[in-house]
Amino acid sequence: MKKSYKNHTESSYLAKWLNNELTDMQLKEHISEADFKAYEKIKKGMEFFEAPDFDAEKIQFQLKNNMSQKKVKKVHFQRNVFIVTAAAIALLFSLYLYTSNLTSNFKTTYGEKKTFVLLDGSEVELNAKSTLHYKNKNWNSKRKVTLEGEAFFKVNKGSTFQVETENGTVTVLGTKFNINSQSNFFSVQCYEGKVMVIQEKDTTYLTKGDAFQSNNNVIEKWNFSENNPSWQNGETSFKSTPLRVVISSLEKQFGVEITYKNIDVNQLYTGSFSNSNVEMALKSVFIPMQINYLIKNKKVFLSKK
Amino acid sequence: MKDNSVCEPKNFDIIFASHANDLRNYLYYKFGNLEIAEDIVQESYLKLWINCAKVSIEKSKSYLFTIASNLFIDEKRHQKVVLKFQEKKTNSFHIESPEFILEEKEFLIKLQNTLANLPSKQREVFLLNRIDKKKYAEIAEMLEISVKAVEKRMQKALLIIRKEIGNI
After folding, report:
1. Domains in chain A, ordered, with CATH?
2. What is the pTM of this model?
3. I need a surface site. Which of A183, A195, A214, B153 has the fewest CB within 10 A?
4. Which helix H or strand E contains B86, and what residues bound it?
């Protein structure tokens, strides 16, 4: 049985028949009438399929955009010809060394929200008390940033774009997504395109509307329909998030210090608070959680009800 | 700059127009993800542009296909493939009773699922030939394998489909 199968693949009679090198009659010498009918049906059925549309213009447009960024580099090399003195070369070289080793840093403080543009035109919006930095060197070939805290990314198409956090790495080609990275808490939401989340050994792929959360290494995934993270509109929302993360968000947003006693800060909270009023925010978090709070000079004390 | 250099924008545009669609389809058939297939097309052409001085026009096609395959390996996105195909409107298939048409439809759905589950080596070759109407020799050139290897994969693809589909 195995041998005849092998012979068949060696002679590739079906492939030859599809390619009109064998006639129907010749094929029938190899196989039964029932088989022939089946193959004929498969051949005809294949005529019903076609490839998805190809939008050459769209792809070429994006490609040209990326190409023009690469071209800048080339022009620099050609200019070498015109450099007159060795001193100028040395100066340029040291300047290059200096700028290419520079690290760009972005920071937000309590309650602050900041948007900025990266070297390739990609946008990042940092939420309160977060930092982001990257090396200018090799930016064109390796887009890599490091994040602490929370940020929303709108990445232009191009080479892979990597966000490193202490909890894991997120890799994309061009897309919109949000990352919130705190101690032992990591959440990623994909708003457009596709992202890859790497946490130690595990890799997770997210497409539009997918959310990923890891809390003390317990992983949860769900779908959402919003087009932007709520914090961009002045609201902070959570889904099954440990209270300690919510508390740290409140602290970052309002610049308050929250202390507590006998409270389980690992219990999960689902809900949201407004970023404009600290009283309202405390109410919307702690009333449903049945926790008493007392606010005095930017200090908040929590206790059990 | 030489007239036949890949760095010449006009030549680069021609290379884009001649191979981009084939490359996209090949990647789509191989991995089943349209969006990523198109990203990889862009990345491959970008790499060709960066290395335009090192690649001749004749070699540019196989260069693109090699780069694209390697990029996909880097991406580690070998997930379960889900292929979708549009059904052609024109049909010279059969004009028959409603029951018959329903049966045909069921057959096509079954065929589509079988294609989606084909091993990618067989699927890429089979779909390039059946959908894109590429000759075995062209496929062999694209994938840098022998025509005999293409025939073997075609043969195996048909045997698998036949087995999966069963008696109809």
Report:
1. 3-100 (no CATH), 103-230 (2.60.120.1440), 234-304 (3.55.50.30)
2. 0.48
3. A183
4. strand B86-87
Which chain B residues contact residue A56 at CB under 8 A?
A: 16-17, 20-21
- On whether ipTM exceeds 0.90, the answer is no
DSSP B101-115: HHHHHHHHHHHHHHH
Tell me the C-alpha distance between A143 and A162, whole Å.
Answer: 6
A170 DSSP β-pair partners: A163, A197
pLDDT tens readout for residues B84-123: 665 554 444 445 556 666 777 788 888 888 988 888 899 9
**Contact of B125 with B113, CB cutoff 8 Å:** no
Put simply, the chain B residues between 65 and 94 with a CB less than 8 A from any chain A CB are 75-77, 79, 84-88, 91-93
User: B 136-155 residues with CB below 8 A of A?
Assistant: 136, 148, 150-152, 154-155
